[in-house]
Every structure is written in structure tokens, then in C-alpha cells.
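[step 3/7] fold_predict: job queued, chain A
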Amino acid sequence: MKTAKPHKAAGALLLAIGLAVTGVRAESLYSENSFRPLTGDNKAFRIGDAVTVQVLENSSASTNADTTTRRKNGVNADFSLTRNPNVTAGVNVGGDFDGGGRTQRTSKLLAQLTVSVIGILPNGDLQLAGEQVLYVNDEEQRVKLEGRARPQDISDGNIIVSTRLADARIKYVGDGDLTERQRRGWWRSFLDWIGF
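[step 4/7] structure written:
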């Protein structure tokens, strides 16, 4: 009958003591932060997830104003001198002003872009932010979106309509020669400012 060698037994003993001192830790395959059940939908629910936003914004505003003012002032004076014939002077000042204005503005924006979840609020709402850049005929078109979404407003296809976003900030800007030509010149803005 063979007996265990002393150095092998000492090694096993040291290994057992080392594991007892450091503590054995087992990790689970289940993670609360990333777990999604097999029957779950594909909705965004954590930071870094993507959400598709359909931007459907229509706005319309109209304002009318009419102003009419009339003013008439009169001053008469009569002077009489003993050496010369009577001198009479008179001044009449009058003015009429009729003014009116109308402002009407209508805007429509249709776009679709995918943004990221950048934060989760204490009440469970998702903070969304993202940007899309398009180039059309050397013109840069940029759509930037920020907002807050309730998870229940996100459809099963992971899509939300922009009218369901709270605190939404949607910016649509263009940059290029065509956009620059549509801007008024500084001198025209200055003349408007001083009243010409």
C-alpha cells in the first residue's frame, strides 16, 4: 500500500487554507441590469439602448392687429401793433395714422431618427438624446433631438412618436450656400433696427 507524499499533502492543505482566507465567490449567469426574458419585447430600458423616434410636428400661428389714431392740434395768435397794421399768425398741426399688421406662420417637420438612452430618472422615465446629419447637394441638414420618454409610450417595435416626449427639444438646421443666401444681410437688419 502506497502512502501520499508529504509535499503533495502540504500543497493541498495550503490551497484549502488560501481559499478559506480569500473566500470563494461564485458569479451567477443572471444579471439584473441586463436580464431580458425570452418572452420580453425589444423596448429600450437601460442606458445605451437605442430608440427610434418619429418626429411628426405641425405648428400654426396667426395674429392680426389694426391700429387707427388721429391727432389734431391748433394754435392761433393775433398781434396788434400801434404803428403798423394788425398782424395775425396761425399754426395748425394735424396728423393721421392708420396701421395694421398680420402675422401667420405654419411649420411642419417630418423625420425619423434613432437616438440613445442617456439616463434613467428616478420615476423610470428615459432621457433620450441623439443627432442625425444628412448631406443633400452639399447642404448639411442636421436634426438634433432631446427629450424624456415614459417606457409605456414606447411601442413594441421600439418606436416612439415625438408628440409623446416630455421636455422635447427638436432642432432642425441647415448649413451651406443655399441656407446662407436665404439669410438677410446685416446692413438690412441694421436699417430695420433704426427704422428705415
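[step 5/7] annotate
Residues 50-181 form one domain.
The mean pLDDT is 76.
exit 0
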